[in-house]
Write the structure tokens for this entry.
Amino acid sequence: MSKPFTIVSWNIFQGLHHTANRRAWTPNLRIEDDLEALDADVLVLPEAWRFGQPKAMWAEELAERLDYDLHQWVADRPSRKRETVPWRMVMLTRIPTRPLPPQIMPQFGNFGQRAIVRAELVDSGLTIAAAHLYGIHLVRSTTPRAWMRERRELKVTAANNDIVVGDLNMWGPVVRRDTTPLRSAVRGRTFPAKRPHSQIDHLLVSSQVEVLRSQVLPEMGSDHRAIRANLQALTSGV
């Protein structure tokens, strides 16, 4: 049997410290220290870029500082209006992994393109798909057909990977229905971080994965709480 490993997903809010007042947003100076303290084998980091700094190589700096391998997909432009930094999806790993082709998402109206980053764990053969979906934002933008198309993409992701993790921007019942036969490894409210009322950050696993322990972590400055799980593959890779 393969060794257990720890996976954490945390939307780090473009490197900002979240408050209810946008004018009061300031850089979150503890992010790097908090990520290091998490001591995770796999870090999934939606919004891992510095707000207003399109040339900053923050994900690369994080990988070097924390001694992780970097898996990422970078769009050619920001994903929403009034943003200046190209959208990216980041996964950092410190256990042996093989990069897999990303799952490129459809273009949704005026929203920028996104993709799901994928990697395979060498010792077990488990595949991880790291995602940051538009989800409920599409509904709020009166584009429910696009939301349904994105949900179909999520079904494809679940059918082709052992672990699906990230900021899915969808509520638990919807996610669990769309990712069958995967099952939830973490349950608990993640958003908004200070007084969470909903779970929109998820970790789903296949029958090839045993969940040893899982939790929603305390608020750490972002608008999302992080989720964490200790997992173990039930079969070994080739």
About this structure: The chain has a mean pLDDT of 94.
